[in-house]
Amino acid sequence: MNFHTRKWVRPTDLNPNSTLFGGRLLEWIDEEAALYTIVQLENKHIVTKFISEINFINAPRQGDIIEIGIEAVAFGRTSITLRCEVRNKLTREDILSIDKIIMVNLGEDGKPAEHGKTKIEYVKDRLSL
Fold it and tell me: Which residues are in coiled coils (predicted)?
């Protein structure tokens, strides 16, 4: 799993227990899943269709640096299925895991559209030098 995004837990991200508000973390995960999908499917018109059970393992505190990892696990005709892990950058302690996030590729009409992808591709592999 690749951990591309790091976030610094700030005072504005905290809940009344002085730990990271779960909704803020889910916002960051949804954004990371969208960015990952846009790059993989080469289309900025995508939406989140489904997020499976969310397993909160440990609660980050103010000042912690967390990493968000996303990995493609399956390609559908119009969708891509991802897996997510979040960990503390410095301690490597697990924070959260999500087994399934389904992102859907949309056409210009806003309806699901085939994307034609069957495997993970990296930007460097698409560039012809």
Answer: none
* Tokens representing residue 34 in the block: 């969208």
Residue ranges in 1-129 assigned as alpha helix (H): 22-41, 123-126
**Domains in the chain, CATH or no CATH each:** 2-116 (3.10.129.10)
The pTM score is 0.90
Q: What is the dihedral of CA 39, 40, 43, 44, to 10 degrees?
A: -40
Maximum separation of any 2 CA atoms in the chain, in Å: 52
Task: Give the Cα separation of 56 and 99 in Å (integer).
Answer: 12
Average of per-residue pLDDT across 69-84: 97
